[in-house]
């Protein structure tokens, strides 16, 4: 007589981990089983012999198969945490990465007015804008994205989190109403079109339009750096994320355009992954901040 396969939490997790080729197969399996059963991950360790219903086990098996094919866990779950905020995600947007929290940290370190006007370009899920709004209720935070589905998703996240962020559809600055900002922040596409990483890992399932930016990966960054001064208050800041090997090129873009106090900051992996600069704007502001009575 053939015995039925074991449907305990531990047996299902062990089998799933063997089928998932990722950096963290056990974690992936636990997240998927938690999603299906509604049980917390700690319960799998406390009660490893707890039985899982055949229906839940079948659904878990489907998700494990999808993860085994490489589909990102965040897309399978439909959500991802960023800056301790639970965000809805979808294949229409990039999955928020932990390293992008360094961009938020850098933005929060700047000396900005208590009622600063902030713009998040290419917002995707709204992660950066929502993180900043969660830290400064007085800031007037706006966000834009050229993809209608991303705009809808970011608005949904703002509503669910009860955070006041205005999200509009715009390809970079082209669809924005006139106005000036104290901070413009962006995590734009910055991967070169021929980069081999596009065929690896989660990025295989993410929208190419949110990843690739020309032959050297800098097309969108060039546009942002060139046009941002028209949208910045005197003394305002531009802060962008970029590739680990692009810091020098991006600093050069900032400096050529006339930004000052240009510097790159490091991510959690100790790589230069973001660059910022201040727009002095008018000669009056330059004299005020530098003491240069000959500024023209």
What does this structure look like?
The protein is α/β, with parallel strands linked by helices and 296 residues long. The chain has 2 domains: 9-70, Ubiquitin-associated (UBA) domain (Helicase, Ruva Protein, domain 3), CATH 1.10.8; 90-289, Rossmann fold, CATH 3.40.50. It is 37% helix and 19% strand. It contains 11 helices and 9 strands. The strands form 2 sheets. A 7-stranded mixed β-sheet has the order 5-4-3-6-7-9-8, sandwiched between helices. Strands 1-2 form a two-stranded antiparallel ribbon. A hairpin with a 2-residue loop joins strand 1 (79-82) and strand 2. Helix 1 crosses helix 2 (25-37), helix 2 (25-37) packs antiparallel against helix 4 and helix 9 (219-227) packs parallel to helix 10.
In short:
This protein has helices at residues 9-19, 25-37, 41-46, 54-68, 73-77, 101-109, 127-135, 148-161, 219-227, 247-257, 283-290, and strands at 79-82, 85-88, 117-121, 140-145, 165-169, 181-186, 232-241, 260-266, 272-279. With 296 residues, the protein is of the alpha/beta class.
């Amino acid at each position: 007589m053939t015995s039925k396969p074991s449907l305990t939490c531990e047996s299902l997790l062990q089998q799933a981990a063997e089928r998932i080729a990722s950096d963290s197969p056990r974690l992936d399996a636990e997240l998927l089983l938690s999603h299906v059963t509604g049980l917390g991950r700690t319960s799998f360790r406390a009660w490893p012999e707890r039985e899982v219903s055949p229906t839940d086990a079948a659904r878990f098996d489907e998700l494990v198969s999808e993860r085994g094919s490489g589909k990102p866990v965040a897309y399978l779950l439909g959500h991802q945490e960023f800056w301790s905020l639970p965000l809805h995600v979808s294949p229409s947007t990039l999955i928020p990465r932990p390293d992008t929290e360094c961009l938020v940290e850098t933005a929060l370190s700047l000396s900005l007015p208590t009622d600063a006007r902030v713009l998040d370009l290419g917002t995707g899920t709204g992660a950066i804008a929502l993180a900043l709004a969660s830290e400064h209720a007085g800031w007037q935070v706006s966000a834009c994205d050229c993809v209608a589905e991303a705009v809808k998703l970011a608005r949904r996240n703002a509503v669910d989190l009860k955070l006041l962020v205005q999200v509009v559809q715009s390809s970079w600055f082209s669809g924005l109403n006139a106005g000036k900002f104290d901070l413009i922040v962006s995590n734009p596409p910055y991967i070169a079109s021929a980069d081999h990483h596009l065929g690896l890992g989660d990025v295989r399932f993410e929208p190419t339009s949110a990843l690739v930016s020309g032959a050297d990966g800098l097309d969108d960054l060039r546009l942002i750096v060139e046009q941002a001064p028209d949208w910045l208050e005197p003394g305002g800041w531009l802060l962008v994320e970029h590739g680990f090997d692009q810091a020098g090129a991006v600093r050069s873009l900032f400096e050529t355009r006339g930004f000052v106090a240009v510097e790159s900051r490091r991510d959690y992996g100790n790589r230069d992954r973001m660059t910022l600069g201040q727009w002095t704007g008018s000669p009056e502001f330059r004299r005020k901040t530098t003491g240069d009575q000959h500024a023209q």
